[in-house]
Amino acid sequence: MMRRGLSIIILMALPLLVASDPIAPPEHRRGEEQTYLTFPEWFLVFSPAEYAQFVQQEQPSAFPFWGHIGQFWESYRAVHGATVEKGYPFNGGYHVMIMVIGTSTTVEYAIRSAYETLVGRLAELTVSGRTAEDDFGAKVAQDYVDFIRERPWYEFDFWSRITGLWSDVSWSGPGFIRKLERRYALTSEYLVKAGYGWLIGKGTQAGYERPLFVTAVVTNESQGKQLHLLPRYEPFTSAATQLARGGADFVEVAGNPAEADVLISVLASQQWNAPMNSRVLFTQDLITQPDTRRFAIVVSVGELARTLRTLEQSEARIEHLFDY
What we know:
single chain, alpha+beta, four-stranded antiparallel beta sheet, 8 helices
């Protein structure tokens, strides 16, 4: 995903068209079911983000890996159920992708949990405080999250992190056993991910078309209907919110009309109430932040702008807008 900031490309003012005809060009149309099915994929951004924030101060051995495994599969069950209830066509390609990333993450998190519980905690007992290797691992974790918000995870440069760990991180300092153990753990993790990422990248190129990095939206503004290309993925949330803040209303997103569903994830307190024009599909507690809950809410495309404006005025923080 190319970094585009909040850039918005306005393509044209639109003439009146037949209401049932999508305005977005065919190559920019995506199925309505994908607003639901992209949630598990994005949970594998939310989870590493929570981990990266956690290990800035805490040790990886205390991270709730198994809790996140459960939340991934629970969210998949919820969004899959919603697509069945709505009667959408079965999107086989997307379900295969979710199963692959879900299974691989389950295996990864289970192994990391076992290792950190048995080996990591023993190594922690040999030193008071953190080592330079702990700080290096925390920095890479944040670099990884920043990268995958806009690019596929398998394009992340794990190889240079291995080199940096062994060439740039000093051997001096207390906690030699912990330093050695962290070097082994981080090197093993980065090596496996580099190799697996290479395989996934090759398989993705062979089995899937390269995705567009923009989302076509149609808005109703003072000068009439406008067709825009907004940056896709993470930047779409800010770009769409900027349009809504300016008074625009959405008529169509990725070829989906005003009555179509669109999913938004919101972070708020446990007692937060969703806007009246939305419905809560499911919630998740942020396990490492017990006062915060993730709300997955559904609104229509036609109500999206009003909902975004309402959310901006509330205590909640818009985490992600799922643009199909």
